[in-house]
Amino acid sequence: MIFIGGYSSSFRNRLYPARGLRIAPARLATPHEVGPGERPDYELRVVDSRDGLTWSTPRAFASSQEGCFDNALYRTPDGWAMLLARDTNLHDVEPFPAQGLWWIQAEAPSGDRAAWSSPERVLNTDTPTTPAWMARGVCGPCVATAEDGSIHLFFTGTHRAGPW
Q: Is the pLDDT of residue 8 over 80?
């Protein structure tokens, strides 16, 4: 098994067969919650197991410099894809890492980041025209594939609001 984690991805817990292994989302790794005036230090970590009982030491899949908070893994006709979301700018800190969703792909699910493509931004929430309901970023990405093959993305937005 391979677990690649994010905050809300832990609620989806679907298992995917992959070359004799299993893969499923796990949990976010962060020393503490981001407060006013602080920059995020989140990272996504991965652990491996052949038997589901003994696990490897957690290692970074997405570093704290990337600020990834969340992920969603899904199968595509060409292999696998993962949506990555950065933490939301809850306290309106400037400067802050770019907000939105990024997409990466691989032939097979892997805990090795080198097996995945470079991130491609598919949703930019840093523009002046971003609706207020997601103006400080998005989290909790989820992917649904319709019968016609179209892909639908779902996520939670962080509303532009006054300071806490």
A: no
